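User: Fold this, then the next.

Assistant: Folding the first:
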Amino acid sequence: MRLLIKFENTAVDGVFSYKQNQLQGLVYNLIRLAGYSGLHRLGQGLPRFFNFSELFLTKGGDLALIICSPIKEVISALKRVLDAKGSVYVGDRVLDVKGLEVFEVKIREPIYIRTETPVIVRIRSDRYREYGVSSELKAPYFYWRPGKYCSVLEPFVVQLEANIYRKYRLFRSMVFKGSYSKGVEFLESMEGRGVEKPIFMRFRYIKTVDVPYYKGDRKISRIGTIWEFELNPGLRRDFLRFIIDTGIGELNSQGYGFVNIVERMGED
């Protein structure tokens, strides 16, 4: 499920500058106020089951943000919080809430998606030999992108699909302890893997981007890629909706891998 937040557009010359961390801080604070801070207390390496877009301009010229989650109660609670607050901060800028809309993405075949924020896939050093990564690379991992250290698409696709299935199995096994603010645990007996069908039928690489992340004043380079994909129509609709509402790749709760459905894929 998704929440579209429209703000009064106070951007100068149509430009609203911000750091990724500032937008992440806004979303995290709203989720905390909504009573779902338990989503932040999952163990390291576990997904948080929410995602968000960049700030963008609607066709009507409003500044907007989309927050999405497969947990419908999270989205409903966020709407109540924003209704009550009326305004939010992004960095040192105040944004007045102009409108709120909760909606579900309509899924029609063929199913094409575009990543609106970079997809992050990290290849660990223990997989370098398997994927034919240059032996000169000594880093514990690298951010996958075409032609950098690795000339084939296989590592990207394999890890992207494995990551989605892992997140979905964890989501299906998730239980909350008393209330969402007290934390989350997982059932010991999770649903079996079964046959994991291919998720992506077609790929179209668009570009590689660097979205810097800041820890204090320290800038950290994070390399991601922008894509268009055709999803497998043979997958269950609830699984397809999970993919769309959770995002793809790593670090979704930090705003990476956000996707939208598009009518068609572009031409190379």
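Now the next one, as you asked:
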Amino acid sequence: MNSHNPRIVLSNTYGHPNVGDEAILTSMISVISESIRNVQITVLSRRPRVTEKNHPYVQVIHSGVIKGVLKTLRAIKDADLLIIGGGGIIQDSTSLGNLLFHLSRPLIAWLCRTPFVCYSLGVGPLRTKVARFLVSLILRKAIHITVRDQSSGDLLSQIGIPPRRVRCTADPAFLLKYPKDPLENIMYRKIYRLKQQGKPVVGISLRPFTSTYNLLGHGSYEKNYGKLPDIMVDVSKFLIDEIDANFVFFSMHPEQDDVLGELFLKNIDDPDRSVFVPGSLSPAEMLSAIGLSDLFIGMRLHALIFASMSLVPLIALSYQPKVEGVMKLLGQEDYIVQPPKWNVENLVTMVRKAWDKRISIKSEIGLRIPSLQDNAWEDVESIVSILKNSHRLKK
């Protein structure tokens, strides 16, 4: 390895108040720091103050579209390795511009002769021909590619990246550690008290959604959220009648999900039966809180991952391929509900099925989690091996 301390740059959508992205970053920093001696980690962040507060022992660079460009260029040029991912950043569902922004980092690395790897990526959807062409062109330059689900690997194969160059591993969040004392968190204590009533606790995670994959930050309730919040209220009333359930709404993104949680609980209109968990919790706090659920109905990918890590039976509202991908890795294909079937009748049927089979579901998930965690660790070991040879790769 180089005589100087090894330098790694991490590139993703870091800095946004998204518990899922923060879970990826937290896990990556932890396992890389444990595995590579004296490593210097630089994080490219859209909101550097947020990242600095959460991770005081790493270097943070503001990496906006304009602000911080020169510092980003310098950091990538001087690095021994650039890590793209993890997370679902190779997609054009948000916008083509967003994809171009993320592809610019590996392009810079290639031009600067800095080796880069694609680490536990989520890939897709890629709706446009130009998106497919650019992803194939640039990611071919990676010295190592891993994806977090098979559908991502299949898509890379479809756009021309040889399957032998892509390995399916697992999302880095599967390596996230539980807090030492979860009862220190007030939201955990609230859910714990709810659970002590002896009634089933149903966890729910919703997010803004449109059928065209365009995530709109503003607009009317109907335009942003559709009918799903109202449908979930009707499903919850069924669960009250059927199993006397209590409810916890988990927001994974305060700027997007909090309003959904507030609307949901307002319509449930029973404070003794419900808890709202805002999206301001740390990943470890959210992991332990979601783990108190007896059944989980969710859209957010990392909410589903967190539930699976505590062996909670899952029903996935699959708004993007990544959700279906992780459910397949967990062996839970039978509990995926696609948008055309998001209605009260279908969801009630699925909820009843999952509740009746909850014991076997817990067992099935329990058989999958260790191998997913092993795969995630293998990803880290690959990074260590690559970094040891990075000085040769830069010549």
